Amino acid sequence: GGSLTKLAYYSTVQHKVARVRSFDHSGKDIENEPLYEISVQEEITARLHFIKFENTYIETCLDFIKDHLVNTETKVIKATGGGAYKFKDLIEKKLGLKVDKEDVMTCLIKGCNFVLRNIPHEVFAYQKDSDTEFRFQTNHPNIFPYLLVNIGSGVSIVKVETEDKFEWIGGSSIGGGTFWGLGALLTKTKKFDELLQLASKGQHTNVDMLVKDVYGGAYQTLGLSGNLIASSFGKSTTADKEFSKEDMAKSLLHMISNDIGQLACLYAKLHNLDKIYFGGFFIRGHPVTMRTITYSINFFSKGEVQALFLRHEGYLGAIGAFLKGAEQDNPNQYSWGENYAGSSGLMSTSPDVYPMQRSRSGTFDMLEMDRLERPLVNLPLLKDPSTYIPDTVDLTDDALARKYWLTCFEEALDGVAKRAAASQPDSVDAPERAEKFRQKYWNKLQTLRQQPFAYGTLTVRSLLDTREHCLNEFNFPDPYSKVKQKENGIALKCFQSVIESLDSLGWEERQFALVKGLLAGNVFDWGAKAVSDVLESEPQFGFEEAKSKLQERPWLEDSYSQWLERLKEGPPHKCALIFADNSGIDIILGVFPFVRELLSRGTEVILACNSGPALNDVTYSESLIVTERIAAMDPVIQSALREEKLLLVQTGSSSPCLDLSRLDKGLAVLVRERQTDLVIIEGMGRAIHTNYYAALNCESLKLAVIKNSWLADRLGGKIFSVIFKYEVPCK
C-alpha cells in the first residue's frame, strides 16, 4: 500500500492435544483401573498469519520474510497494491523471488468475502457519541450482494454479487488523495495522520457557511436544519481573517466525506443494496473519518442505509493476494477461526493515543486465524439465522456487567494457572509456561478494560474462548483431563443404582426425578468458582448433595408443568438433539438417564459433545468411551446404539459456550436427516450466557443451574436458582 505493507503467510503450527483411548481390559480386573488412558500428542494444524509493517521499515519486512518464510520451493511471491510496482525490484533483488502482481480489486473482494465468512464480529457501525463507539453486526449467513466503497487516492465503488462476480459501477477522483493534497496546500502539513489529527481538533463552522448563515435559521420549506453545511469553505469568501489549520482541515474532511457519502448512497439505491462496506487508507480505523462518513450516509439515505466498516479492512488486499496464490489448496473449503491469543485486536485510534505506541520494527498489528478441522454451518433449526445472536449479554454495552466479569476472570486467573501447571506434573517447564499463560491472559484482560471492542462484541463467551486460546498457546491443551477421567470413573460406578432407583418410581414421579437429576448433574462445573471451591474442599460432595443444593419449585424460570403436559398428551418426539455440558456426574447420571427415557418413548437421540476440550466439559472422544461403558451395563442404551437410534456427534466447538451459527457440518446434516423436532441445551455456558433468547423452529428445553451469585442476582434469583425453559415455536 501507500504507507503500510501488509503481509499474509501460511504456517503449520505444532501444538499439543490431549487424546483419550480406551484400555484393553480383556481378562483383567478393571475395578481399580482408570477408565481410559490420557496421552498428550503433537498435532500439526494450519494457521494464517497477517502482519503490518510501515513502509519506512520495508527492509525489516523483507528481512522477516527472508529469515522466516522463504524455503527452497518458494519461487514466486504474490503482491498487490501500489507498492507491488514501487517495491518490485527491491523485493525481487532482496528475496531472489519473482514478484507476481495481482489485480488490486480482485484481491480486495476475495479478502473481503473471506473475513465476512470467517470472522463473526468483523463488521461494525461507528457511533461516536454512544458509550461504545463500535457497534458490531451479526454476520448474515448470505454475505451477498453488497457494495464495497474503497477510498484510496480516489474512490472506487464496486458491486459484489457472488464469490467471483463483481463489477466496478462508479467512482470519483475526489478521495483520500484529494483530502491529503488539498490539506497539504492549505495547512502545509505533509503527513496524512497529522492532517487527520488537525481535523479532529477543528471547528468546521468557522469556515463553512451553514444554512442558518444564509437564511437566518432552518429552511423550513425544504426541511433543512439550520446547522447543515450550505457551502463548504463558504465563509472564506467574505471573512477578512486567517483561518486556523485545524478548522480548514475539518472543513475539508467534511466536504470530501459528504461527497463520498452521497455518491455511495445514490449507487446503493440505484442497485437496490442495503449493505455498504467502506475501506481504503482514508478510513484505516480513524474515528474522525468513520464519523463523517457515517453521518453523511445517514443523512442522504434518511437512515435507511448504514455505513459499515471492517475490523481487518487494512488486510483485505493481502488476504486476497494470498488466496489467489493458494488456490490449489482451496482455503475456502475450510472454516477458519480467529486465534485471540495471537491477534492484537482493533486498536483505539482516538487522537490522544495516536500515533500508537509501536515497537521499533514498524510492526504494530497482527491477526492469526486457525484452520478448523471441519467446516462449520448454521444449525438448520434456527428460526432466523440472520438475526440470531448467540450471546445473552453484550458486555461492550453494559458497563456494570463488563466490570464485574473482567474482575471475575482476573480473580480466577491464579487458580487456572495453578491447575494448568498441576495438570502436567511430569513436565519440568510447566510452571514457567503456566506463568507465561497467566501474564498473557492478564494483559488481554487489561486491553479489554481499555478497549472492550478489541475483538468484536465483548461477551462472557469471548472471555472464556480467549482464555482457552491462551492456554493452548502455552501447550496446556486440557488442564482438566485428569479431573474428568476420575469423575467419569466415579460416576459410572453409580450409574446402575441411579437407573434402578428411577425405574422403581411411578411415571410422573420419574419424569421429575429425571429433570432434577439433569439439573443436579449440571452443578458439577469447575468453571464456576462457587462450585470449584466446594469440589476442592469437599471431595465427598456427590449427586445427592447437589440435589439438595437446588432451589425448590417454583424455579426462577419454570415451565416444567408445560413440559410434563407435553409428555403426557403429545406424541413422542421423532428425534431429540442434546447439547451436553460437563463430564462425570453431569453426563453419566444426569444426561444419560434422560436419554434412556427418551429412547424408551420411541424418540431417537443425537448427543452432541465438544470437539475439543474446554474446562471440564465432556469431549466427543470421551463421550464415546463413556457411552461404550454404559452400553455394557444397560440394554436400552446398547440396543439404541446398535440400531443407530442413539448417535454421538461432535459440535465443531471447543468452547464452554455454544454458537448455533458455527456448528459441525456433519451434525447439521444429521439433524436434517433425522427430522429433529426437540433441542435440549443444558448448562450455564450454553443455555444462559448463550442461547437464552435463541429462537428455534422446533420445541426446545433450556435448563441450567445458576452457579454465580452476581448473575443470579441480575436475573432476580439466588445462587443455585434453576432455569427450566420449555419453548414451543409460534405456529
Account of the 3D structure:
With 731 residues, the protein is of the alpha/beta class. The chain folds into 3 domains: 4-117 and 316-373, Nucleotidyltransferase, domain 5; 124-207 and 243-310, Nucleotidyltransferase, domain 5 (2-Layer Sandwich), CATH 3.30.420; 480-727, Rossmann fold (3-Layer(aba) Sandwich). The chain contains 24 helices and 24 strands. It has a 7-stranded mixed β-sheet with strand order 6-5-13-12-7-8-9, with helices on one face. The chain has a 7-stranded mixed β-sheet with strand order 17-24-23-22-18-19-20, with helices on both faces. The protein has a 4-stranded antiparallel β-sheet with strand order 1-2-15-14. Strand 5 and strand 6 (134-136) form a beta hairpin. The longest helix has 26 residues, at 245-270. The two termini are 54 Å apart. The model is unreliable at 348-363 (pLDDT under 50).
In which order are the strands of the major sheet placed? 6-5-13-12-7-8-9
Share in β-strands = 15-25%
CATH superfamily of the largest domain: Uncharacterised protein PF01937, DUF89, domain 3
- The number of helices is 24
Average pLDDT score: 90
Distance between the termini: 54 Å
Number of strands: 24
Organism: Nipponia nippon
Pfam families: ARMT1-like_dom, Fumble
Domain Damage-control phosphatase ARMT1-like metal-binding: 409-717
InterPro entries: ARMT-1-like_metal-bd_sf, ARMT1-like_metal-bd, At2g17340_3_helix_bundle, ATPase_NBD, PanK_long, Type_II_PanK
Summarize the structure.
Helix content is 41%, strand content 19%. The chain is of the alpha/beta class and 731 residues long.
